[in-house]
């Protein structure tokens, strides 16, 4: 047996606010950052587990402290039993009652648990010699269901429901895996649409996105209606009628304001409106959905846990569900979220606008295609074109599609040189 011997955390921050990359109506000056975790073992294969929580700068030190608070759960423990029972360690971490009190199951503590779970999956996938999406896609329905915490879900999704969904998708797994490796997974790009960009830059980036093969772009909105109308007019003129242009308000509006604002932009035929109001306001999203139809509502990057997703789906509040690889309790909870979406027939188009999120969340969408829903129709993964060079296995997008990764692991491992160069303050280590 090998043991976990160290739990290393690092505060990493990239100064993206200088170029306004990532800027939107609620977050005008984000510094894309990672509260980074490395789980070190004494195993002969020297494999370590890497993961992170994405933040946008200040507060990253708080997120690192939350990671450090979990070290005692793992340091000194035998590794193999943890990897054999990933559902059990997920429930153990979430079930620490004194830490759970800070949520429960939401906020910085829950995101920290997600990073720990993801780091263990990184080790498990590397040991299997498989990318995460392939490792998950080759697990039996029974093994996958054992990963999920069904507490609070049973009035919408039971273990029997989940088994039925996964068993229905079993027959075509091998063919879909081959198809995915050959053709990839559709992407859309947010890179043209950051709110701080000039109209000239917006137009140029729209032209480049179309030339690069993307089938949809997304623009940030919500600061000023006249500005939004002008920018959407620029984008529509470049992209042409019928080309999908999504819009994203990043929680800026009141419910009534969202309805009025989106209806004022309806002439530009938005593909969806993303995060129109508070991510916790399930009934508000449902009211907005009724008030702006046929424009679709999309949300989920700030959904705190599987319960929020359950309620959004039960209320008919969203037509597009957006999961985030670093917001909820890790791979396990995102499997629950994918199963919920499949049960309700809602497509999942993940959030990936942040450092390392493209690298991470692609695995979840690809697993969904192979082993859960069996379809890519109406589904795509967000793509932004910065900071990939800092990762050991950077995302590869060609012709507007994600190339399926084949390197073992979750894709969340950042290069050691980049971690050292962009470290903010002092690294932390528990051993």
UniProtKB/TrEMBL annotation:
Task: Tell me the GO molecular function terms.
Answer: L-fuconate dehydratase activity; magnesium ion binding
- According to the record, the signal peptide region is none
The Mandelate racemase/muconate lactonizing enzyme C-terminal domain extends over: 199-295
Its keywords, alphabetically, are: Lyase, Magnesium, Metal-binding
Per its UniProt record, what Pfam families does this chain match?
A: MR_MLE_C, MR_MLE_N
Q: Which InterPro entries match?
A: Enolase-like_C_sf, Enolase-like_N, Enolase_C-like, L-fuconate_dehydratase, Mandel_Rmase/mucon_lact_enz_CS, Mandelate_racemase_C, Mandelate_racemase_N_dom, RHMD-like
Record GO biological process: amino acid catabolic process; carbohydrate catabolic process
Q: Broadest EC class?
A: lyase
The cofactor required is: Mg(2+)
* The protein's Enzyme Commission number: 4.2.1.68
* Catalytic reactions of this protein: L-fuconate = 2-dehydro-3-deoxy-L-fuconate + H2O
Q: What is this protein called?
A: L-fuconate dehydratase
Q: Which organism is it from?
A: Microbacterium trichothecenolyticum
Entry annotated with the keyword Lyase = yes
Which PANTHER family would you find in this protein's record? ENOLASE SUPERFAMILY, MANDELATE RACEMASE, MITOCHONDRIAL ENOLASE SUPERFAMILY MEMBER 1
């Amino acid at each position: 047996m090998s043991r976990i011997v160290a739990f290393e955390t690092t505060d990493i921050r990239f100064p993206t606010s200088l170029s306004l990359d990532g800027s939107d109506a609620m977050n005008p000056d984000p510094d894309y950052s990672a509260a980074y975790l490395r789980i070190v073992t004494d195993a002969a294969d020297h494999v370590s587990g890497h993961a992170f929580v994405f933040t946008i700068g200040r507060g990253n030190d708080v997120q690192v402290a939350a990671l450090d608070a979990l070290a005692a759960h793992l340091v000194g423990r035998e590794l193999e039993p943890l990897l054999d029972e990933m559902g059990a360690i997920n429930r153990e971490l979430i079930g620490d009652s004194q830490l759970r009190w800070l949520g429960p199951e939401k906020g910085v503590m829950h995101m920290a648990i997600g990073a720990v779970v993801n780091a263990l999956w990184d080790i498990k996938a590397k040991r299997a010699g498989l990318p995460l999406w392939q490792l998950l896609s080759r697990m039996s329905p029974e093994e996958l269901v054992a990963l999920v915490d069904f507490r609070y879900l049973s009035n919408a999704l039971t273990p029997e429901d989940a088994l039925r969904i996964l068993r229905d998708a079993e027959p075509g797994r091998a063919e879909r895996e081959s198809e995915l490796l050959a053709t990839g997974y559709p992407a859309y790009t947010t890179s043209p649409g950051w709110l701080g960009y000039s109209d000239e830059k917006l137009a140029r980036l729209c032209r480049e996105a179309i030339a690069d093969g993307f089938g949809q772009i997304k623009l940030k909105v919500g600061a000023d209606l006249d500005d939004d109308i002008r920018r959407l007019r620029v984008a529509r003129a470049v992209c042409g009628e019928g080309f999908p242009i999504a819009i994203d308000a990043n929680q800026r509006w009141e419910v009534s304001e969202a309805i009025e604002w989106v209806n004022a932009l309806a002439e530009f035929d938005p593909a969806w409106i993303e995060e129109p109001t508070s991510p916790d306001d399930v009934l508000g999203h449902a009211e907005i959905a009724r008030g702006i139809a046929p424009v679709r509502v999309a949300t989920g990057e700030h959904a705190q846990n599987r319960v929020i997703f359950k309620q959004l789906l039960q209320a008919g509040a969203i037509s597009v569900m957006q999961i985030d690889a670093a917001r909820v309790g890790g791979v396990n909870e995102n499997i629950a979220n994918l199963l919920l979406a499949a049960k309700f027939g809602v497509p999942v188009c993940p959030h990936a606008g942040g450092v390392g999120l493209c690298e991470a969340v692609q695995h979840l969408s690809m697993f969904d295609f192979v082993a859960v829903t069996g379809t890519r129709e109406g589904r795509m993964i967000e793509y932004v074109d910065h900071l990939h060079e800092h990762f050991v296995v950077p995302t590869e997008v060609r012709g507007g599609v994600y190339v399926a990764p084949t390197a073992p692991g979750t894709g969340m491992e950042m290069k050691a040189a980049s971690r050292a160069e962009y470290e903010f303050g002092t690294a932390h280590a528990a051993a």
